[in-house]
């Protein structure tokens, strides 16, 4: 028996004794399909969740995805041209492959049970590498017996939107990066924290500063936050007024947070890229730097008990509702 390996990340393959709820596709001459139907075979249409669907089998692998030597199976929405502008359909779907030796189905589904969104630019969802062709053709695996195989599908519509709503990520200019010291245009935001050793564990926040049309703050936990508590300094970039994001729901920002080495100019820094929003207004590191390394003699991160934190922020895009 050839070993059966599923090679697509993020997919779980449990088994079920229950046939698929919505559609079963039986192919009785798979070798002819593989030989003469070239790269694609579409099933007839079937109804599920108020929409029409097809099963699509790529007997030689999905060429557009550069898949070779595997079976690829997809769920495709049919009749999408009749839907209103801006439609979106979120589905929970599972695809099936029958083990005819055992009478059970291999079930293909997202490992995290993630709901997939179909729209006019994405009419199909599925699995590129269902099973290697060599293992599929091995009768001892049970998936191809007497040149016959059986596929199936279950489709559950979770949410739908048919109104002509849309979202746009426009081009924008580079961020305006300012300094707290004089509020002029500069390359960085500078925050000087004095008497660092006397700070309590509660978080500190810098004064607000502007970058890319948004207002930001630096947040610092001098004794650590979460998994960095009592061992690290935690450092975050956060939106100052996330509740005001009704016209800019998501902001893509590239940023650097830095603790300045005041003696040797060998600064300690980390880079990040994150989509900031009202529901996710901050991002950073709860283990930014160890407390021991920060206070180490000769390193310059604490000079005369003063710590200097810098932030550079570039907003690359703002996603707006149209």
Describe it for me?
With 322 residues, this protein is mostly beta strands. It is built from 3 helices and 22 strands. The protein has helices spanning 30-36, 133-137, 291-294, and strands spanning 11-12, 15-16, 23-27, 41-42, 46-48, 51-58, 70-78, 88-99, 104-110, 116-118, 124-132, 149-161, 167-168, 189-193, 204-205, 209-211, 214-221, 232-239, 250-259, 268-277, 282-290, 307-321. Strands 1, 2, 3, 8, 9, 10 and 12 form a 7-stranded antiparallel β-sheet that branches. Strands 4, 5, 6, 7 and 11 form a 5-stranded antiparallel β-sheet that branches. The longest helix has 7 residues, at 30-36. The N and C termini lie far apart (56 Å). Residues 172-187 have low confidence and may be disordered.
């Amino acid at each position: 028996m050839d070993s059966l390996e599923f090679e697509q990340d993020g997919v779980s393959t449990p088994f079920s004794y229950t046939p698929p709820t919505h559609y079963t596709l039986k192919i009785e001459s798979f070798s002819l399909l593989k030989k003469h139907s070239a790269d694609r075979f579409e099933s007839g249409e079937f109804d599920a969740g108020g929409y029409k669907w097809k099963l699509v089998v790529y007997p030689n692998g999905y060429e557009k995805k550069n898949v070779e030597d595997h079976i690829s199976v997809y769920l495709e929405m049919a009749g999408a041209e009749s839907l209103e502008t801006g439609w979106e359909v979120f589905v929970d779907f599972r695809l099936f492959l029958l083990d005819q030796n055992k009478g059970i189905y291999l079930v293909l589904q997202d490992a995290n049970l993630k709901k997939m969104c179909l729209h006019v630019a994405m009419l199909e969802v599925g699995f590129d590498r269902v099973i290697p062709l060599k293992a599929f053709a091995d009768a001892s695996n049970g998936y191809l017996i007497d040149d016959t195989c059986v596929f199936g599908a279950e489709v559950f519509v979770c949410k739908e939107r048919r109104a002509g709503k849309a979202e746009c990520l426009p081009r924008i200019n580079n961020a305006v990066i300012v300094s707290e010291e004089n509020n002029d245009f500069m390359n960085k935001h500078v925050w000087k924290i004095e008497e660092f050793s006397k700070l309590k564990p509660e978080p500190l926040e810098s004064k607000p500063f502007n970058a890319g049309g948004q207002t930001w703050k630096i947040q610092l936990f001098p004794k650590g936050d979460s998994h960095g508590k009592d061992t690290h300094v935690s450092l975050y970039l956060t939106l100052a007024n996330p509740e005001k994001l009704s016209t800019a729901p998501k902001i893509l920002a590239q940023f650097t947070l830095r603790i300045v080495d005041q003696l040797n100019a060998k600064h300690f820094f980390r880079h990040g890229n994150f989509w900031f929003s009202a529901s996710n207004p901050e991002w950073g590191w709860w283990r930014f730097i160890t407390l021991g390394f920060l206070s180490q003699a000769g390193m310059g991160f604490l000079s005369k008990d003063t710590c200097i934190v810098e932030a550079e922020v570039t907003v690359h895009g703002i996603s707006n509702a149209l």
